[in-house]
Amino acid sequence: MPTMMDLLFKIDWYKVFIPSTSVAELFVRGTLVYLMLFAILRFLPNRQIGVVGISDLLVVVLFAEAAQNAMASNYTSISDGVILVSTIIFWSYTLNWLGFKFRPFQRFLNPPPTPLVVNGRMIRQNLEQQLITQDELMSMLRKQGVQKMSEVKLAFMESDGNISVITNFSKSTIPKESNEESEAYATE
Question: Using only C-alpha atoms, what is the Rg of the chain?
Fold first, then answer.
């Protein structure tokens, strides 16, 4: 029967550092979970994701899960958690690198902007695709300083879930001071 001191202070160092599952299995499991979640999140409407990129969201969620399991001893060694976290880092870096090096892959990772408004007219099909109501669109446009739909030349749902807006106001309607300021920054 273990003593109270054994229960409080005895550490099984073998269980702490030696993986309880094969490294290959941990890598395959981490890879499958990461790529499956990436694919699911890639095809969700952008507004569901917000301003965090898909791979960033996955890294945070999977890091937390892998670290929690390693710390809470659901795995029998810290090495299991370290291998899973390393797998997540590997795939996050690899996908970002592939997107940087290969343009078609970048289009898969970050879909092109979806037009929501063109020349003051809503594109209802795209709003439905992105699950955005007219009231939500107007709220987002007001946050961009737009009061009326007729002021909008173009509005896009970006791949990160933000809305970018180009208004009908031309460069000549910008106050002279602001225009000179912009030119000064451009020459630096």
Answer: 25
Among residues 90, 93, 109, 106, the alpha carbon closest in space to that of 28 is found at 90
What angle do helix axes 23-42 and 78-101 make, rounded to 10 degrees? 50
Q: Average pLDDT of the chain?
A: 76
CA 87 to chain CA centroid, Å, is: 18
The class level of CATH for 114-187 reads: alpha beta
Stated length of the chain: 188
Q: Give me the sheet containing 163-167, strands edge to edge.
A: 121-122, 114-118, 152-157, 163-167
**Token couple for 42:** 């890639």
Q: What tens digit of pLDDT does each residue of 14-69 get?
A: 777 888 778 888 888 888 878 877 777 777 665 544 556 666 677 777 767 765 66
Domain ranges of the chain: 4-109, 114-187
DSSP 8-class letter at 48 = G
Residue of 105, 112, 142, 146 lying closest to 126 (CA atoms): 112
Between CA 70 and CA 73, with CA 72 as vertex, the angle to 5 degrees is 65
Is the pLDDT assigned to residue 174 strictly greater than 60? no
Q: How far apart are the C-alpha atoms of 46 and 33, rounded to whole Å?
A: 21
> Residue 123: CB partners within 8 Å, gap ≥ 6?
115, 116, 117
